[in-house]
Design goal:
The chain is α+β, with helices and mostly antiparallel strands and 86 residues long. Helices cover 38% and strands 30% of the residues.
Length: 86
């Protein structure tokens, strides 16, 4: 039986992109760059992982946690997707 693969798109701030790449490599996650947001300084990655693989699941958790921490440091309590740029 084939293991189900989960896919997620994640917006990675460019400032932590290399750290996230290390997490991707260590977690052996499949990844693909699907876009960029030059205004916000983000790379959009599509990450694929198996929910049953504890290492991959942990890597995904660490990536989400790192992005959340960075965004909180960068934007405070505001949602970066809702910030109007003038």
């Amino acid at each position: 039986m084939k293991t189900p693969i989960e896919k997620q798109s994640v917006k990675i701030p460019i400032e932590i992109f290399l750290d996230v790449c290390k997490m991707i490599r260590i977690g052996n996650l499949n990844n693909k760059i699907v876009g960029t947001n030059e205004v916000m300084g983000e790379v959009v990655l599509e990450l694929s992982y198996s929910k049953e693989n504890k290492i991959q699941k942990s890597a995904m958790h660490n990536i989400h946690e790192s992005v959340s921490e960075w965004n909180e440091q960068r934007y405070g309590e505001e949602n970066p997707d809702e910030i109007a740029l003038n």
